[in-house]
Structure formats: C-alpha cells, structure tokens
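Q: Could you fold this chain for me?
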Amino acid sequence: MSSDDRARRGAPHLVVLTGAGISADSGVRTYRGAGGLWEGRRLEEVATPQAWAQDPRTVWRFYQERRRALASVRPNAAHLALASCERELLAAGGSLTLVSQNVDDLHQRAGSAVLAMHGQLCELRCEACAVVVVDRARFDADAFVPCANCGHPRLRPNVVWFGEVPHHLAQIESALVKCTDFAAIGTSGAVYPAAGLLAAARDLGARTWVQSLDAPENLDPRDRFLPGRAVDVVPALVADWCR
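A: Sure. Below is the predicted structure, expressed as structure tokens.
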C-alpha cells in the first residue's frame, strides 16, 4: 500500500483469512483432497459429531495423532510476517484481524492474535460442563482425558466438526464491516461459511487480495490474485501493506 493510498484511506484495517496453504509450508498435514486418507478413512468420516458418538475411540486416536504432531512443526515466514504486520499496523493506528480456518496453533506461536473459527487442536472441551482446557502434553491415543472440573469421563477435541457452527462469527462480521483490505491466504475457497468472507468484504467496499497455489473457487476478477506458496508470497505482500 503506497503512502498516497494510506493518506486517502486513513489507517488501514485489514482482515486476513488463512487456510491450509499457509501451514503446508510448515509440514502440517490436512487429510483433505486426493491422497488425504487416514487409515483408509476420509476426513469426513472421523470429523463429525456422529462419528464421535458412534466410535469415539477411533476419532480420539485420529485427533491424538494430529495433536502430537504439532510439536514437530514450527511457524514459517508467512506466519511470522503476519504477526509482525499486526504489531506495525496497531502502532500506526490501524488493525489486523486474523481469522484462521486452521486448527494448528502456528499463528499463535508466531505471535498473532487469532480468531480460530474451526477451533484448536491444542484445546480440549467438556461436553458436560463446557469447560475448555489447553492441553499440549497428554497424547495417549488409547486413553481419554477426563474433565477435571466435573468428572465427565472424556473431553473432546475443541475443533469444529462437519455440521457444527464455526466459532467467532459475530466478531468476524464486526471486523468485516470496518475493514479496508481483505486477504484470503492459502484457502481453497470451497469451505463455507469461510469461503463467503471474500465476497462479503468485496461487497462492503474493501480491496481484496487472494493468495494460493491455484485460483480458488471463489476468486473474482475484482480480486488481486497472487499465485504461489504462502511462504514466498506473503512476506512481500505484508511488507507492502505496512509501508
């Protein structure tokens, strides 16, 4: 963003939506798309309330493997660039609202404040008393974690399964209303309601940016499309925003 643009538009208020593409460069596996099976199962078979009710041990084993794997990955240059941009914009009187579809905690470890609309792998939630706990230590795939608050025998992963309502929708809507610029980074543009945020921001008058390896399903001619890997494209894009 040039100094002339900033002078005309005032302090920028960015909303950034990130998807699996930003964490792929850190080695995070998504289990979506071709070849994304786990023990012969599609993600949709182990990521639903129905699967948890019918076969909780299988669902628990799947998520315990994913939770354990978080310890072996680190934030990459794209995560770090967004965290730095958030600090710079805040210091200049602007803001960056980071919304993520990812359930890893790489944005948080990079230093960003995140609206994790699909939840977090590092959190467990009690279905009896609704308490949420951060747990980065108990990864036994054969042992459920009981609730220390109410005694319920098993906590569930605090992630949004297929058919459940995403988190933070009211906060995301409030951020969109005031945003001057919106960026979708590493998303397929196929998973709703997240995929609808790009069009909503565009309709509200925000400038829109899209970064992914290939053109996503919801790309519009009015969007500025930046193809490539997030780790290569995002740092330069962020530097332009923060000038």
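A (continued): Strands lie at 13-18, 95-100, 114-116, 119-125, 132-134, 156-159, 181-185, 207-212, 224-227.
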